[in-house]
């Protein structure tokens, strides 16, 4: 496709599309339609080739932000969006998860609004939902947890380091807390939550690379995690904390181990499900 807009035509439209947690088949039907019509796709770092395959006629531009190595600044991304909207009719800004959850969406919308460029949001499956599904848990439970708080402990550029624990303000031990971008800060986050009234035996479920083939689920408690932290790498980690996660944590892990033991005795390959580990 890749049809460039002429100088006499109005600028193209930008679609902010949620790519979901990673698995290519978790895109919404609307996202698939928009992707299939894209002339150019500006995508985050964790977007896979399988996801990009849904836009067969598009040009791809990697605007991902990375902890190490080459990374695009927000100013770079805004500039690229404006340039693409001036040159292409269908511009897709493909963001991991849901664009409205920790997606730096406002900065990009502000830049488009200032230039008079039309835009639309296509929601995606956010990491909290994907992590809960991977672990086989509900984030809410009648009589146990009637609220879910999605927070991140990471400070943005320019934020006051003195507010490093501010993310925990107002969190309620009677609800479920979902922490994004917290894998390397798991011990510190656990200590902060216990200092805010959460008991040491509060269940914690950590999901690494939710929905990916190498996803891993670890079940623990705040007290345990405060002492040991998590073994982490560059893969995204979501921490889910709360009493709603207690019901099947141990039993699910036992069932998984029993299933693997049976498969081993029968000479069958391991089940292609998430790795589940209970931290002792």
Give an account of the 3D structure:
The protein has 280 residues and is of the alpha/beta class. The protein is built from 8 helices and 11 strands. The strands form 2 sheets. Strands 6-7-10-8-9-11 form a 6-stranded mixed sheet. Strands 3-2-4-1-5 form a 5-stranded parallel sheet, sandwiched between helices. The N and C termini lie far apart (55 Å). Mean pLDDT is 86; it is low at 271-276.
Summed up, what is this model?
The protein has 2 domains: 13-124, Cobalt-precorrin-4 Transmethylase, domain 1, CATH 3.40.1010; 128-278, Tetrapyrrole methylase, C-terminal domain (Methyltransferase, Cobalt-precorrin-4 Transmethylase, Domain 2). It contains 8 helices and 11 strands.
What are the key terms here?
280 residues, alpha/beta, Cobalt-precorrin-4 Transmethylase, domain 1, Methyltransferase, Cobalt-precorrin-4 Transmethylase, Domain 2, 6-stranded mixed β-sheet, 5-stranded parallel β-sheet, 8 helices, 28% helix, globular
Give the arrangement of secondary structure elements.
Blueprint: E1 13-18, H1 29-36, E2 40-43, H2 49-52, E3 59-62, H3 74-87, E4 90-95, H4 105-114, E5 119-122, H5 127-135, E6 148-151, E7 176-180, H6 186-195, E8 203-208, E9 216-221, H7 222-228, E10 237-241, H8 249-265, E11 275-278
Parallel strand pairs: 1-4, 1-5, 2-3, 2-4, 6-7, 9-11
Antiparallel strand pairs: 7-10, 8-9, 8-10
Helix pairs in contact: 3-4, 6-7
């Amino acid at each position: 496709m890749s049809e460039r807009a002429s100088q006499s035509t109005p600028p193209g439209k930008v679609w902010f599309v949620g790519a979901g947690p990673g698995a290519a088949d978790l895109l919404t039907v609307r996202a698939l339609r928009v992707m299939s019509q894209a002339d150019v796709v500006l995508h985050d770092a964790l977007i896979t080739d399988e996801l990009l395959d849904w836009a067969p006629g598009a040009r791809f531009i990697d605007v991902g932000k990375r902890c190490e190595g080459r990374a695009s600044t927000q100013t770079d991304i805004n500039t690229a969006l404006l340039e693409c909207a001036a040159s292409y009719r269908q511009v897709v800004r493909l963001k991991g998860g849901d664009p409205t959850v920790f997606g730096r969406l406002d900065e990009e919308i502000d830049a488009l609004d200032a230039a008079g460029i039309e835009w639309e949001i296509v929601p995606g499956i956010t990491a909290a939902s994907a992590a809960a599904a991977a672990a086989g848990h509900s984030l809410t439970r009648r009589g146990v947890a009637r609220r879910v708080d999605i927070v991140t402990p990471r400070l943005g550029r320019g934020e006051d380091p003195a507010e490093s624990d501010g993310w925990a303000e107002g969190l309620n031990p009677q609800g479920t807390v979902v922490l994004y971008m917290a894998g390397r800060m798991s011990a510190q986050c656990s200590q902060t939550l216990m200092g805010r009234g959460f008991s040491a035996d509060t269940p914690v479920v950590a999901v690494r690379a939710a929905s990916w083939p190498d996803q891993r689920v670890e079940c623990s408690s705040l007290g345990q995690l405060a002492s040991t932290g998590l073994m982490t790498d560059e893969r995204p980690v979501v921490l889910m904390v709360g009493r709603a996660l207690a019901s099947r944590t141990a039993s699910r892990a036992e069932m998984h181990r029993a299933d693997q033991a049976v498969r081993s005795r029968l000479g069958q390959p391991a089940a292609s499900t998430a790795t589940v580990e209970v931290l002792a």
